[in-house]
């Protein structure tokens, strides 16, 4: 059996040790399709209140939100404290439980370039100052990155491992409109290409099972994302959680989640067409609590991985 080229493989090969991503959530970050800049309410599948701190030790800064036009940040010191507290707690656990030796600080929740440049620079520099941190991974949206920020990340990338993660989701504008994404597919392509021109590492997030999309459309999204030169990919099934617009559609019978068989079929085909140099960071997603409405197969990740490997076995592949 041949193992799929994973992000873990990539990091182990480059750094010759166990490198873990430390997921961070900084208060004050939001999205332009939540705050009304491009849309209201966020993506239809996103439960906005679910983004809490990665540990229970940081206090949320209620009523405080940044955007690209913010003139000042009175809470920057508190944000820097949050960053340090979360990093110390999570990296210690990863060391103790998994033997992690080096780390990428992963700015994970919401849109982590959607703030004034001075704030971003302070946070990124602080993260890179921690012991055994080899780089950053920054989750964002293509409509929330400035040329100034991209230039700075490219400068950091000369000495550190810098990744930028874009939510591609779909290359069909009709789908993006349906899920209230707030930007076009061309906008994602433009900023991925810009990031690659700057020499940055790019991870693309793809969602299978979006409203009104068939397998052909999902695979076309994969094909185009690969053609833009992404270096890594995360595959997600679309699942329905409470307190979302998608939950309302589901309850009204206007949305049917993708079945596990359908997901496995499109996932395997997408992996097979993937260029060999593109690493895989995620093959599925889900949540095992009472917020999940459907599909039930997204509850148990271990079972999902087992079934994914069963689907890959005829191709002599494993995850």
Structural overview:
The chain has helices at 7-15, 76-98, 117-129, 147-156, 173-178, 185-197, 215-227, 245-251, 260-273, 301-312; strands at residues 2-3, 19-24, 102-107, 133-140, 161-169, 201-208, 232-237, 240-241, 279-282, 292-294, 317-318. By secondary structure, the protein is of the alpha/beta class. It has one domain: TIM Barrel, CATH 3.20.20. Helix 2 (76-98) packs parallel to helix 3 (117-129) and helix 7 (215-227) runs parallel beside helix 9 (260-273). The protein is globular, with a radius of gyration of 19 Å. The protein starts with a strand and ends with a strand.
CATH architecture: Alpha-Beta Barrel
Could you name the CATH topology? Answer: TIM Barrel
Q: Strands across the major sheet, in which order?
A: 2-3-4-5-6-7-9
Structural class: alpha/beta
**SSE string, helix = H, strand = E?**
EHEHEHEHEHHEHEEHHEEHE
- Which CATH C-level class is it? Alpha Beta
Q: How much is the average pLDDT?
A: 95
Please bin the fraction of helical residues. Answer: 25-40%
What is the end-to-end distance? Answer: 10 Å
Give the SSE layout.
Layout: E1 2-3, H1 7-15, E2 19-24, H2 76-98, E3 102-107, H3 117-129, E4 133-140, H4 147-156, E5 161-169, H5 173-178, H6 185-197, E6 201-208, H7 215-227, E7 232-237, E8 240-241, H8 245-251, H9 260-273, E9 279-282, E10 292-294, H10 301-312, E11 317-318
Parallel strand pairs: 1-11, 2-3, 3-4, 4-5, 5-6, 6-7, 7-9
Antiparallel strand pairs: 8-10
